[in-house]
Design a protein that fits this description.
- It is built from six helices and four strands; from the N terminus they run ααααββααββ.
- Helices cover about 40% and strands about 10% of the residues.
- It is mainly alpha-helical and about 150 residues long.
- A hairpin with a 7-residue loop joins β1 and β2.
Length: about 150
């Protein structure tokens, strides 16, 4: 297996984020945590991932402050993995990936899960990027201001 090269010090926020959550198992663990999965065996059952691989990913996500290992919410002797504020901050990332996949990786008539408002069951609106003044922005309305541009 080829070892990943860290992009942490490149000055690119996308590269730095991928250093933390760029592994596809990590993103699926985070997705499951948003869906209420909390215990090791629940993650393993949901993902079908090897125990060693899951343990490594959960430890990494915990070490990086995405998840925390906490007493079980039901008062039992178990411990659970819970999203931290930093982890919950990835919600829009997961939704953006979901919506991109819906737009580009499914046929219109192909069955798939859907994201709805919990209280009403109404589908969630599409994500949009807006300027501070509320103007809707597309990819060609923005640019990255590199460090050397300043």
């Amino acid at each position: 297996m080829v070892k990943r090269v860290s992009q942490w010090n490149t000055g690119c926020p996308v590269a730095r984020a991928l250093d933390v959550i760029g592994d596809w198992w990590s993103l699926l663990i985070i997705r499951d945590a948003f869906d209420g999965v909390r215990r090791f065996t629940e993650f393993q059952t949901s993902l079908g991932i090897a125990k060693g691989m899951l343990a490594t990913r959960l430890r990494d996500l915990t070490d990086r402050g995405i998840l925390e290992f906490a007493p079980a919410s039901d008062g039992s002797a178990y411990r659970e993995y819970v999203l931290t504020d930093k982890g919950r901050g990835l919600f829009l990332v997961i939704i953006a990936l979901r919506q991109w996949s819906e737009d580009h990786l499914y046929r219109p008539d192909e069955p798939r899960s859907s994201l709805v408002v919990a209280e009403t069951g109404v589908p969630v609106a599409r994500l949009e990027l807006h300027a501070q003044d509320g103007q809707s922005l597309g990819w060609d309305d923005t640019r990255v201001q590199k460090i050397k541009d300043r």
